[in-house]
Amino acid sequence: MKKLWLIFAQTTTVGLAVWFALTTLYPQWRPGSALLPPPHKESTVPAVPPAVPVQGGVASYHGAVARAMPAVVNIYTAKAVKSRKHPLLNDPFFKRYFGDRFGGDDAPRASSLGSGVIVSDKGYIVTNNHVVESADEIEVALADGRTAEATVIGTDPDTDIAVIKIELDKLPVIEFADVSKVQVGDAVLAIGNPFGVGQTVTMGIVSAMGRSQLGINTFENFIQTDAAINPGNSGGALVDVKGSLVGINSAIYSNSGGSLGIGFAIPASTVKQVMEAIIKDGAVTRGWLGVEAQDVTPDLATSFKLKDVQGALIARVVGGSPADRAGLRAGDILQSIAGQPVADSSAMLNLIAALKPDEEVDMQAYRSGQLQTFKVHIGKRPKLNP
Question: Are strands 109-118 and 72-80 parallel, antiparallel or unpaired?
């Protein structure tokens, strides 16, 4: 009996060992394996791309920086500062005895710095208007160490964009990104010359799109970011993780005036549109309606018995303007322009500006609770600061 029991135990042990070896090599033979997918089939679940580019096993944005940084330039400007002299200093008798010891004829000069982006191998550079505004001298320093004097091709104060040009060969050019594909949460890099220390890169994310009514520019459609933007970054590049231009850094909202705040960049789509117009015509021509408008609030919507809280309430019509000639008047609530819905007064301004002067379009507006259509012959937007 003991011998039979020993044989049984040994046989069982060998059998279990063989079963363990086979199920290790062929796991589909295990009980319940029918619930698992066959080992030779690939999963149909798409892989989630890494949030941060990985190069050589290390998370890095080096590739994007290497592509974009050569096209970002440092801009140094200088302008004469007009100072009022005491009338006595111009008196010949006073000059006879005291000469120019109280101040000569040379006016003091103020210098400032900013950044810019090379957008054409012909030497065109895009920057902020406030960087080069009223400058007598503009010097551009490239990332490769070259410098050149720049001339202003044209400016657009309404969007705070300026185009300048340098005469150098073999210029690096940045690539424009498709802004329509930019989403909140996308990683972005701000490249510029903060505090004049040289090119610097900061990283953040896109925290909002289409910011407007901030009181910074006349036409606003900002990309909002938390990437650090310091003094001197103005006019620099905001790029995506591929190194393509997403926007031009323009301003920062900060209690301290430093980088601890919210940054705003002009979208690359707006930059390209304004840049092309300036290069072609030297200025940007926009449509004009000739009204002052305000947003429709919930209280106003209830008062005017509107179904939706949207549109632009016309507060004033300029006499002799396109709106005046078309029959629009104060109290009308614009709902659509050339078939495009009007969300608020800022959207109204942008829609009208995009129209060509002398173009005739249909506009719909509520008047006394009735939706009416007006044919408007668009005018040319006048310069507010000639």
Answer: antiparallel
DSSP 47-100: PPPPSS-EETTEE--HHHHHHHGGGEEEEEEEEE---PPPGGGG-HHHHHHHTT
Q: Which residues are catalytic?
A: 130, 160, 234
Q: Is 86 annotated as a binding residue?
A: no
Say if residue 232 carries a ligand binding annotation. yes
pTM of the model: 0.70
pLDDT digits (tens, 9 = 90+) for 328-379: 999 999 999 999 999 888 889 888 988 889 999 999 999 988 899 999 999 9
Decide if 86 is inside a domain: no
Distance between CA 283 and CA 117 in Å, rounded? 19
Q: Which residues of 141-159 are buried (b: 16+ CB within 10 A; e: fewer)?
A: bbbeeeebebebbbbbbbb
Is 40 annotated as contributing to ligand binding?
Answer: no
Q: What is the dihedral of CA 133, 136, 142, 143, to 10 degrees?
A: -60
CB 233 within 8 A of CB 250: no
Is 160 within any annotated ligand binding site? yes
Lookup: tokens for 337: 């322009």
Domain housing 191? 179-281
Q: Are residues 241 and 328 in the same domain?
A: no
